[in-house]
Amino acid sequence: MDPVTMAAVAAGGSAVVGFKGNQTAAKAAKQTADYNAKLAENEAIILARRKVEEEKNMRQQSDRLVASQRVATASSGIQMSGSALQALADSYFNTEMDALNIQYAADIEQTQKEAEATLARAEGRARATALKTQSYQSLLQGGSQAAQLMQ
């Protein structure tokens, strides 16, 4: 085989290897992005569970506070009316406001994790597309070099 033909074959072989390598890298980029997105989605689930537990604990503490307020009021001989009743109502309302704040914080965290997952997938698709384009470019470039050598 003459040297020109060998060079053309080598250029074609190099193009195929570059094509396959970039195709594999594109697949890996997409898989990595999907994995990172799944991690963010799992973190969102964990954060939601943590916020539910936080709200539950806060409500239990509030119930204990209300119970101790009732006992203190009853043991002092004061009727549950007026200021004592207002203090009890304030405790209930504050508990609900705290619960709403916890739920709001949970919603924000959920939204952040969903956005993180969406972004990871989009970046992975973009990277995979770029690598696929490079693989086709490598193939075309190798074919062009082989054709030039064969002239």
Account of the 3D structure:
The two termini are 16 Å apart. The protein is mostly helical and 151 residues long. The protein has helices spanning 3-75, 83-150. The radius of gyration is 33 Å and the shape is rod-shaped. It has one domain (3-150). The mean pLDDT is 90.
Derived structural class: mainly alpha
Give the biggest beta sheet: none
What is the share of helical residues? over 70%
Count of DSSP strands: 0
Rg, nearest Å = 33 Å
Tell me, rounded to a whole number, the average pLDDT: 90
Summed up, the helix count is 2
Poorly predicted ranges: none
Keywords:
151 residues; rod-shaped; mainly alpha
Summarize the structure in short.
This protein is an all-alpha fold and 151 residues long. Helix 1 packs antiparallel against helix 2.
Secondary-structure map:
Blueprint: H1 3-75, H2 83-150
